[in-house]
Amino acid sequence: MLFRSKKKNAAAEHERIAALCSKDIQYVTERDCAENTETVIGKAGYINFSDGKIMILCDGSLVFSKPVSELSVGELLSKNGATFTYTEPETGKRMTVVAYYSYYRK
Description:
Helix content is about 10%, strand content about 50%. The protein has a seven-stranded antiparallel β-sheet with strand order 4-3-2-1-7-6-5. By secondary structure, it is mainly beta.
């Protein structure tokens, strides 16, 4: 019991990703960790999860799509958005896509 596997439970991971589904997005940025740059790649969209892929659609077009197996998914500490970190296969660069949720008063 002292040494537990650090692998995340697949069911818990799937549940966490499913919670991100159909969240409205205010805007999406792409961060290049090597160059310390951040670029807005889309506004007014939503997150979709199907066939093992996470897709972000903004203004009716697909701005981001990656298989979940290639991503590290997390939520911002402020709970105002989600981060999707991956490594580009061609260049080996570490990239992060941040989707900021739309805020609606309840």
